[in-house]
Amino acid sequence: MKNGDKFARKGLFDLAPYVPGKPLEEVQKEYGLTKIAKLASNENPLGISPKAIAAMEAEIKNCFMYPESTSFDLRQDLAAKLAIDPDQIFITCGGDNVITLIGSAFINEGDEVIIGTPSFYTYTLTTNIMGGTVVNVPLTDLTFDLDAILAAITPKTKLIFFCNPNNPTGTIVPKEKVADFMSKVPEHCIVVFDEAYFEFAQCPEYGDGVEDYVKKEANVIVLRTFSKVYGLAGVRVGYAVCAKHLCNAFTHILPPFPLSRLGQAGAVGALSDEKFLKDTIDNNNIGRDYLYQNFDRLGLKYAPSYSNFIFVDIGVDAKAAAEEFLKQGVIIRPGQGWGTPTHIRVSIGLPDENEQFIKALEMIIG
Ligand SMILES: *Cc1c(COP(=O)(O)O)cnc(C)c1O
């Protein structure tokens, strides 16, 4: 413990800080590389929508003024798209921020928070900082185990974080199973549907947290983001869609200006760009099939992905492999942090990036 650490909130040091994927610039310098496939953070390989760029460029000159505090225009557009009251939508500085705000709004010391494991790290961090008790429920077959989560509910359970599709495994729980689960969750629990990859998961067996639960006034908050399919990870735009009776608590903890002018303009632009959305999903489907085929050929097991990344067992130490990948100009995420030491999570890239990844993989495991 360093001098000064005694001032920090209880529980702050129970966890290591979040370690993001290596920035492109750092890897380029460190390994003397020019062509790098950055497949570690589930970013959009097509970049930013041209409409988002144009909107942000037009907004730059206004940036001496504070932004509109509730992201009014963006909320109107989202509300129209989701066919919901704009007052049930809260725009934040990234989806991560939705999670911390949920923590600030709802977690009291001693409240239990159920988290599937492995899943998104911020749930654990937020719960800990707020003095809640993390109740880890392991995944079954790399998928959220909703029966086990039901069994873990106690009178102290306040929140359940349900990541669907799940990061890092990419799996979903079919909507009938979710419905069965929701019919059994007691009234004193809020279920957070983390739908950061919603747009990639579109298929008949995937549900829709807003349509199925928020609109039916269940104790549900849905998280979505502009970082993935909309390509705005660097601008930081996320949002929560809350059941009406939960909005008041949420309103009370919002910072005065959660999202910058550039963020608001960029997200409005991105939301209007149907072509970019379609191109992103098409590229993702093509890349996913290509990677599946190659994993099959190499005899590697992977979880079925409903997202823009794949969780695959490469059969060797993933941390050592990640270093080797870096030397080949490929950045991936090793599974050590999730307790899966031979798995990696690889984002689906452009066709040439996927090829570069497969070539490197063959060298590493061959
Ligand atoms: C990416 C992601 C988010 C939110 O990311 P932001 O960039 O903060 O919007 C939330 N949940 C999961 C599971 C994610 O993968």
Write a structural description:
The chain is α/β, with parallel strands linked by helices and 366 residues long. 39% of the residues lie in helices and 16% in strands. It has a 7-stranded mixed sheet with strand order 2-8-7-6-5-3-4, with helices on both faces. Strands 9-10-13-12 form a 4-stranded antiparallel sheet. It has a two-stranded parallel sheet with strand order 1-11. The longest helix has 24 residues. Bound molecules: pyridoxal-5'-phosphate (PLP).
Task: Explain the layout of strands and helices.
Layout: H1 24-31, E1 37-38, H2 50-59, H3 72-82, E2 89-92, H4 95-106, E3 112-117, H5 121-129, E4 133-138, H6 146-152, E5 157-163, H7 175-184, E6 190-194, H8 209-214, E7 220-225, E8 238-242, H9 244-253, H10 261-271, H11 274-297, E9 301-302, E10 309-313, H12 318-327, E11 330-331, E12 333-334, E13 343-347, H13 351-365
Parallel strand pairs: 1-11, 3-4, 3-5, 5-6, 6-7
Antiparallel strand pairs: 2-8, 7-8, 9-10, 10-13, 12-13
Helix pairs in contact: 2-10, 3-10, 4-5, 4-9
Largest sheet: 7 strands, mixed
Our Rg estimate from Cα atoms comes to 20 Å
SS elements, strand count: 13
Order of helices and strands: HEHHEHEHEHEHEHEEHHHEEHEEEH
* Side-by-side strand order of the widest sheet: 2-8-7-6-5-3-4
User: Based on the structure, what is the oligomeric state of the protein chains?
Assistant: single chain
Give the structural class. alpha/beta
- Bulk shape: globular
Approximately how much beta-strand content do the residues carry?
15-25%
Q: Total helix count?
A: 13
Weakly predicted, low-confidence segments: none
Bound molecules: pyridoxal-5'-phosphate
Q: Round the mean pLDDT to the nearest integer and report it.
A: 95
- The span between the termini is 44 Å
Determine the fraction of residues in helical runs and give it as a percent range.
25-40%
